[in-house]
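Researcher: Let's do a round of design. I'm pasting the structure tokens now; please hold your answer until I've finished.
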């Protein structure tokens, strides 16, 4: 329903992308990959990994590239 997760972001598309994602989840030609920065732990010395937003996974393009 409306009113959930509204954020004043600059992007037009409101998705659950992390900063390390190359594309929104579900995008054709992309898939989940282990975060290269935290190696899937979702954490770094300073706290949650900013690259994967603490999920330990990022969305990367697969095939072609
Ligand atoms: Zn990470």
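Researcher: That's everything. Go ahead.
Model: Designed sequence:
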């Amino acid at each position: 329903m409306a009113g959930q997760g509204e954020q004043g972001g600059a992007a037009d598309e409101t998705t659950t992308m992390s900063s390390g994602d190359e594309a929104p989840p579900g995008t054709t030609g992309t898939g989940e990959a282990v975060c290269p920065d935290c190696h899937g732990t979702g954490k770094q010395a300073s706290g949650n990994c900013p690259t994967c937003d603490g999920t330990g996974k990022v969305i990367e393009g697969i095939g072609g590239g």
